[in-house]
Amino acid sequence: MYELTKEQRLCKNHEYQLVYRRGKSYVNRRVVLYVLPRSPKQPTRIGFVTGKKIGCAVERNRCRRLMKEVYRLHQFELRDGFDLVLIGRSSLKYAGYKDAEHSILQLFRHARVLKKK
User: Fold this and answer.
1) What is each CA distance from 81 to 15, 97, 101, in whole angstroms?
2) Which of 28, 46, 47, 101 could form a disulfide with 10 if both were Cys (CB 3.0 to 4.6 A apart)?
3) Which domain holds residue 44?
């Protein structure tokens, strides 16, 4: 139910490159979000990225796990038809769950990928 299946993820490098090149970016202190619209009939796919500037592998993995957990709990609030890439920035490694959740949901709202209530 809350798992991230292969159909819901960006898996190939060329898929990430397409989102970087053609997508629109939204930025805040902790996270960068790239959004590429697709057909509304297709499910939303997402990828998680952390660069080496964040720190060692332990810190990068923690940041990715944090972003995945926020997405996992809020994935049913997102509209269909988008390719998303979430990129963790260096201040994310100092953030707790609530701070990360606030930052990511703020970007989702700004990008208008959340469903209307």
Assistant:
1) 15, 27, 22
2) 47
3) 6-110
